[in-house]
Design a protein that fits this description.
nucleus, globular, DDE Tnp4 domain-containing protein, 5-stranded mixed sheet
Length: 363
């Protein structure tokens, strides 16, 4: 009996070793230059040129190979890109049978690449809110040229990214749609570039609270002698620097025309979320990130970095199907109308009324 158990254990060890050797052979045979361009973008979402740029940025930040048969840094990056794009461990790097890596190895690659993409200098390089008047004027001009709405430096909203039930502080992440999530605040420009992102709050946190705690709010309030607006829905409190819709506006009235234009421009942030999640489908609310909230937040930031790289490079995004769009809309938590303090609200109303009057004069 003991001899039989020893033989079975030895056979299982040999089987594991053979699987490991097979995976190593598949990795060694993988030559990304042999992957057709369309298939490369389909699998990894980046062009070959953009992939090389990414490697130059983050390969120095990855842990060195610990042994001769360790995973090459470029393969780690491809593995992470494939996961971000698919949202699961299925569908291996290079589309090889059975996959050249064990799931644990894929997870380790994902964590290492995600950490590299969250390096402060990488985030500053790729996600940057305009810091001076010239930069703000460039964004304002683009919004004005596209939509005819002046002084807009961005559109803001939140979107939920599903995660597994956390082991700690579970109540912070359980949202009103009854699943666990990260409530991710994003500000974008007219080109769908993400200029600011905060993925540190759980799904139970309201959009207005995240904005109140945001450093960008303090930055905008500190600007002197400059008219600057963000556009938000009614989940945000009306302020001098936050333009929201007019409640119960009559159609074809000045307020109604303002609402129509404000909503049209604000659709920019909805398109940004659509492109972000269409390209990096691990963020779809119908999927779940099987990581703790801190790691899930880093994955979100990593995808935002890659989103901006792709937008700047002009790489087309695979579109979501109508079924995927409907699933995403169903899983998103509707906003709650924000409460507001009287002095700040009055200042916001004066600013919005001035904007409405200007739009009417320019009709």
């Amino acid at each position: 009996m003991a001899t039989r158990q020893l033989l079975i254990a030895a056979a299982l060890r040999e089987e594991r070793l053979e699987r490991r050797r097979n995976r190593r052979r598949l990795r060694n045979q993988l030559n990304i230059s042999n992957i057709p361009d369309l298939e490369f973008v389909g699998n990894y979402r980046l062009s070959r040129e953009l992939f090389e740029e990414l490697c130059q940025d983050i390969v120095p930040l990855l842990p060195p190979k610990g042994r001769r048969h360790g995973i090459e840094p470029t393969l780690k990056i491809l593995t992470a890109l494939n996961f971000y794009a698919r949202g699961s461990y299925q569908g291996s790097v290079g589309q090889n049978m059975d996959g050249p890596m064990a799931q644990q190895t894929v997870s380790r690659c994902l964590q290492e690449v995600t950490t590299a993409l969250n390096a402060p200098h990488i985030l500053r390089k790729h996600i940057r809110f305009p810091q001076n008047r010239n930069e703000r004027n460039l964004i304002k001009q683009k919004f004005y040229d596209k939509y005819g709405l002046p002084a807009v430096v961005g559109c803001i909203d939140c979107s939920h990214v599903a995660i597994v039930r956390p082991s700690e502080h579970e109540e912070r992440y359980f949202n009103r749609k009854h699943f666990h999530s990260i409530n991710t605040q994003v500000i974008c420009d007219s080109d769908l570039l993400i200029t600011n992102v905060d993925a540190s709050y759980g799904g139970a946190t309201h959009d207005a609270y995240i904005w109140r705690e945001c450093e960008i709010r303090n930055h905008l309030e500190g600007l002197q002698d400059e008219t600057v607006y963000l556009l938000g829905d009614s989940g945000y409190a009306l302020r001098e620097h936050m333009m929201t819709p007019v409640d119960n506006a009559v159609e074809n009235s000045p307020e109604g025309r303002y609402n129509y234009l404000q909503k049209r421009v604000r659709c920019t942030i909805e398109r940004t979320f659509g492109v972000l999640k269409g390209r990096w489908r691990c963020l779809l609310a119908a999927r779940e990130l099987h990581y703790c909230p801190e790691t899930a937040g880093k994955i979100i930031l990593a995808c935002c970095v890659l989103h901006n790289m792709c937008i700047r490079a002009g790489i087309e995004c695979p579109e979501l199907t109508e079924e995927e769009h409907q699933s995403e809309r169903t899983r998103q938590v509707p906003f709650e109308t924000a409460a507001s303090s009287t002095p700040a609200l009055q200042a916001g109303r004066r600013a919005r009324n001035s904007l409405i009057q200007m739009l009417e004069r320019n009709r």
